[in-house]
Amino acid sequence: MLKYRNDPRCPSNGFYTYDAFITAARSFNGFGTTGDLATRKRELAAFFGQTSHETTGGWPTAPDGPYAWGYCFIREQNNPGAYCTPGSWPCAPGRRYFGRGPIQLTHNYNYGPAGRAIGEDLINNPDLVATNAIISFRTAIWFWMTPQGNKPSCHSVIIGEWRPSGADTAAGRVPGYGVITNIINGGLECGRGPDNRVASRIGFYRRYCDILGINHGSNLDCNNQRPFG
């Protein structure tokens, strides 16, 4: 699934391991273990689809296609503070909480709750997400399993537990992979018609569904969904 995660062309080379993922996953009851076998596989395909887009190193003519290059990055690619020394400009102040890990955890309002949930001080040590693979996966799974503000959890959507409210229906938000994109980055990607970032998320998801031998389901994009308020 993550064919090039150990490729020397990827900054993540050797960081994301199977054992780290399994250890992290066991910290969250229900992740990848809820429902029938198809539901469990679909959750893994959706989780890796979204996180692979967040960490992609793929390009249109990449070997094996752009969707074979998930988990190529650990830190946010386009942030000038991504490779600086914590505590020095441009990391501080306000630049310490850029994207890290599979979900590209960002902002202190995510680092704080994520750290409390997994028992790590990520406010004072945010780079743990980029240097400890188990912690890195735990932050991603924490985000996946936890409702974000007025948004449902990604987990509840993909297992079929979430039911849209009247406001959701009016906003075009319907059960399916697309509303997970809306949860993660709807303010920038959803409700604006076709978007290359949304297409990338779908491309990874379809690849993993095919590998796991399950159908893709419906409502894969969020092109006509208004973002959550």
TrEMBL record:
Disulfide bonds join 10-72, 84-91, 190-222. GO terms for molecular function: endochitinase activity. The active site is at residue 54. The keyword Signal applies. It holds the Pfam family Glyco_hydro_19. It catalyses: Random endo-hydrolysis of N-acetyl-beta-D-glucosaminide (1->4)-beta-linkages in chitin and chitodextrins. PROSITE patterns: CHITINASE_19_1 (PS00773), CHITINASE_19_2 (PS00774). It comes from the Eukaryota. Gene3D superfamilies: 1.10.530.10, Endochitinase, domain 2. GO terms for biological process: cell wall macromolecule catabolic process; chitin catabolic process; defense response to fungus; polysaccharide catabolic process. Residues 10-32, 135-145 form the Glycoside hydrolase family 19 catalytic domain. Keywords: Carbohydrate metabolism, Chitin degradation, Disulfide bond, Glycosidase, Hydrolase, Polysaccharide degradation, Signal. The keyword Signal applies. InterPro entries: Glyco_hydro_19 (IPR016283), Glyco_hydro_19_cat (IPR000726), Lysozyme-like_dom_sf (IPR023346). PANTHER family: BASIC ENDOCHITINASE B, CHITINASE-RELATED. This is chitinase. It comes from Gossypium trilobum.
